[in-house]
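Reply to thread "Modeling small-molecule complexes from scratch"

Following up on the discussion above, here's a worked example others can learn from. I took a protein sequence and the SMILES for adenosine-5'-triphosphate and predicted the complex. Inputs first:
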Amino acid sequence: MHLAYIVAVAGKGGVGKTTISAMIVQYLLKIDKPILAVDADPNSNLNATLGLKYKETIADIREEVKKQTPESFSKSEFFGLRLEEALVEGNGFDLLVMGRPEGPGCYCAVNNILREYLAKISKKYKFVVIDNEAGMEHLSRRTASDIDLLLLVSDPTMVGVNSAINAFNTAKGAGVKIKDITLVINKSKGELGPDKLKLIKNAGLRIGGYIGFQDEIQKNSETGKGVVEADSDLENIIDNLFKREKK
Ligand SMILES: Nc1ncnc2c1ncn2[C@@H]1O[C@H](COP(=O)(O)OP(=O)(O)OP(=O)(O)O)[C@@H](O)[C@H]1O
Ligand SMILES: [Mg+2]
């Protein structure tokens, strides 16, 4: 049975998770298709970096299934149907927007159906790329399956590096199986200083690489253009990770 290779991107607010998720999708398209991009941030905006629009989120569908499943369907059948409809088709990839769950107590039957379906549809893809909301608490709740690669993103600040280390420790105890965890320093203007390198090393976290600060990325997001292309720094990082994995 084919299983998709699942990449999750996490880290502190504003460090570049969404930008990097879009870059990863663009780059993986050159390796294999189809890809499923999952926007798991309630402030959904991965679509913009991928140049897509969406109409419905999984949270919307979850409410709909709870309240108004037609009599001719079981909840699970209806969920499956609506979920297929909510997938946004891109060029070589699909986008699924999780949205913002309503109210507390989302651990309901419908959630289990969601997990079931996510596991089912992700098998149709070669890669699944998940853009997470800031922080790590959500990872265990939101993702159904094990993760092959967790990319922790930090900017070059001390605060960023410390939260990446915290995220690393949380991830290890989160009850989700994660095969590989790598730190990516985004918006870098050169290698990190020795104090930060030492902190990272002592935490047992590995640096996968650096992505330089690029005026163009910043400018495009300021003007609302926002569509992100694959980036050569990132391509090297991913290539190296995949090579390491094959060994
Ligand atoms: N390498 C880079 N060079 C320059 N600007 C960047 C780079 N990466 C990201 N940015 C800019 O930094 C800002 C935040 O990026 P992004 O939205 O990807 O971060 P995020 O971690 O997803 O944020 P949030 O926590 O709000 O979801 C954006 O304006 C983006 O264009
Ligand atoms: Mg984001």
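What I'd highlight from this example: The first strand starts at residue 5 and ends at 11. The CA atoms of residues 62 and 106 lie 10 Å apart. Questions welcome below.
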